[in-house]
Amino acid sequence: MAIELGKDSIDIGIVVRDSDAALKFYRDTLGFEYVTAMQMPGSTMHRLMCGTTLVKLVKHDVVSENADHKGGPGGATGIRYWTITIPNLEEMTDKCRAAGYTVAVEPRDVRPGVRISMIEDPDGNWVEFLENNA
Prior knowledge:
Structural class: alpha/beta
C-alpha cells in the first residue's frame, strides 16, 4: 500500500549551529523565500520555501557538540545531501563560490543532458544542484 500524501512535496528540517549563517546561505544566496520565524520550547525555527518544499532551519538554544559526519554521499550513512533541480547550474554554482561557499563537486555531466554540482552549506550539509536538459 502506497503512502497517502497530503501535499506534493516534503518538508525538510535542518538543525543548524548558526541561524544567521544558515539564513545567509539558504535565503540570501540560494534565494529561498523567507516565510516566518517560530519560537518553540528550546529552539527557534526559520521557515523558508523552495518551490513547494518547506525548509525548516532549526537552531536549538543549547547546541549539541554532536554533529553529523561531513563529506557528502561518501562521508557516512544517513541523509548526506538533497537535490534541487534548477535551470542555471553554472550560474548558481558560481554565485555560491563567489559568496565563499565550498563547491564540493564542480559542475559535471552525470549522464547525457544531465549535469550536477554540489555545494556545502555552513554546517557541512551538501546541496546538489541538478540541471536536466535531457
